[in-house]
Write a structure and sequence with these properties.
The protein is of the alpha/beta class. The protein is built from twelve helices and eleven strands. Helix 1 packs parallel to helix 4, helix 2 runs antiparallel to helix 4 and helix 6 crosses helix 7.
Length: about 280
Amino acid sequence: MATIQSLLNQAITKLSKTSDSAKLDCELLLAYVLNKSTTYLKTWPENTVNEEQTQLFQQLVSQRFAGKPIAHLLGYRGFWQFDLEVSNKTLIPRPDTEVIVEHALTLCQKQEANVLDLGTGTGAIALALAYEQPQWQVFGCDLFDDVVALAERNKQRLQLANCTIFQSNWYENVAKHCTQPLDLIISNPPYICETDPHLEQGDVIFEPKSALVAKEQGLADIKHIVQASKRFLAKGGYVVVEHGYNQAGAVQKIFNAENFVGISTIKDYGNNDRATFGKWMEK
């Protein structure tokens, strides 16, 4: 039987040809197969792995070598303070989206607030906000029933009673669930142009195009979110939307055209423009 270290060495050599994070990928996959922590692997590298576990690990490594996202292989992705169940029906939560959560927490200073996450996917943004602000009432909605069910499972596992997940095509069913004016509307909507070459690269190949692509050079959904938000916002409420690194100017124009004030763009961990927000002062 092979040892932990020998299996890792072989797998890392293979994955180094296609992955920039080969060592971490292999450690995560083997820890998953053994139902152990990555610390265990480093502590007991000489321990042997049985044949069944070895075959499963090698199958997972081969799938990763072919480009399948590590999150899909494991069935989860870490986000904020917790792990979230993922599937190929939703976007994989990305670290840069945590920047938007951080900024939303600084924007909305109310002790009790009503918050909506449009296109919640795994529930990442909604659940992070509900986790950090137990007095807030947080709502998350998504178009697809199976995605709503996934977000609900994440919510139930985290036991966040102050979060409500429901089905809605953007704002279509919001009035049925959010009976009070909203202090914050936040979204990571589709914003990639249909002809963008990045759609054929990396993890996005395995993610649903409906969660990635928007018409009007990627701006159609953002425009709808900003324009329609005014019916639901409280005076002084904010809209925060994630967007592409080269879309800040266009998104700021959308906010300006709808008479939002205090419009500003947030940079992500790589110092790229990542989200824009505005404040609604009319009622």
